[in-house]
Amino acid sequence: MEEITVLVADASHEKYVDTILETIAAAAKVRGTGIAKRTHEYLATKMRETKAVIALAGDRFAGFSYIETWGNKHYVTTSGLIVHPDFRGLGVSKRIKDMTFTLARTRWPKAKIFSLTSGAAVMKMNTQLGYVPVTFADLTDDEAFWRGCEGCINVDVLKRTGRKYCICTGMLYDPDEHEGEPTPIELPGEVMRRIRK
Ligand SMILES: CC(C)(COP(=O)(O)OP(=O)(O)OC[C@H]1O[C@@H](n2cnc3c(N)ncnc32)[C@H](O)[C@@H]1OP(=O)(O)O)[C@@H](O)C(=O)NCCC(=O)NCCS
Predict the structure, then answer these.
(1) What does the domain layout of the chain look like in residue ranges?
(2) Atom of ligand 1 nearest to the CA of 118
(3) Mutate to test the pocket of ligand 1, among 84, 88, 116, 167 (most ligand atoms within 8 A of CB)
(4) How many CB atoms lie within 10 A of CB 195?
(5) Which of 99, 124, 127, 166 to mutate to test the pocket of ligand 1 (most atoms within 8 A of CB)?
(6) What is the pLDDT of the chain when averaged over all its residues?
(7) Chain segment 43-58, per-residue pLDDT in tens
(8) Which of 159, 104, 166 is nearest to 131 (CA)?
């Protein structure tokens, strides 16, 4: 199999956006979870803003994720993690997650990083990175974040409990608990220059 490269995306990767959206939609259908709505333009903007990570096998799409901030940049999430079925079980999502996590830590070192997930693989990776399970009260109260749950089939549970409980597990990485710890990877100099621009 061709070697898989994981890199911080840029505008040149916009040609993969439709494939990414189709792969996310197909995976959500299989899992029966519903889906947070993301447009072509939204993902393309993430790429242009140095907020997205893509995995490629040659020129074939292998995986993707991006970062976004909430609540006035006090919180950040790594979102939309997807690995194409042809490339699963090879450690690709772990490589992507290490890179999105490093991007988030580098860009907003004081922000808390959180995750709302029902995925076992994601919970395992979050735990390895130092996230701990928390109640929803410890997550952002940014309405825009919670609107992302509208497309999920379980949103009635979230609404019925006044946003206190749902099927997903909330997990939080608090930078104050990890002072001085190195990031999982080092970002290439070219990426650091794009971030600082
Ligand atoms: C979840 C997903 C991203 C995993 O991608 P992947 O590249 O196959 O995962 P990796 O090979 O990098 O595995 C990462 C870790 O998760 C574990 N893992 C992978 N799939 C798992 C599963 N279905 N159940 C439990 N653990 C799993 C691996 O053992 C590995 O742990 P380790 O480092 O301790 O060995 C991929 O299956 C996918 O895209 N699924 C559909 C979309 C989705 O569920 N996204 C997450 C939304 S919350």
Answers:
(1) 4-196
(2) 48
(3) 88
(4) 15
(5) 124
(6) 95
(7) 999 999 999 999 999 9
(8) 104
Q: Which of 12, 88, 22, 85 is nearest to 52 (CA)?
A: 12
Q: Return the CATH fold of 4-196.
A: Aminopeptidase (3.40.630)
pTM: predicted TM-score of the whole model, two decimal places: 0.96
Contact 87, 146 (CB under 8 A): no
- Identify the weakest region by mean pLDDT among 26-30, 33-37, 106-110: 33-37
> What string of H, E and C letters represents the secondary structure of the chain?
CCCEEEEECCHHHHHHHHHHHHHHHHHHHHHCCECCCCCHHHHHHHHHCCCEEEEEECCEEEEEEEEEEECCCCEEEEEEEEECHHHCCCCHHHHHHHHHHHHHHHHCCCCEEEEEECCHHHHHHHHHHCCEEECHHHCCCCHHHHHHHHHECCHHHHHHCCCCCCCCEEEEECHHHHCCCCCCCCCCHHHHHHHHC
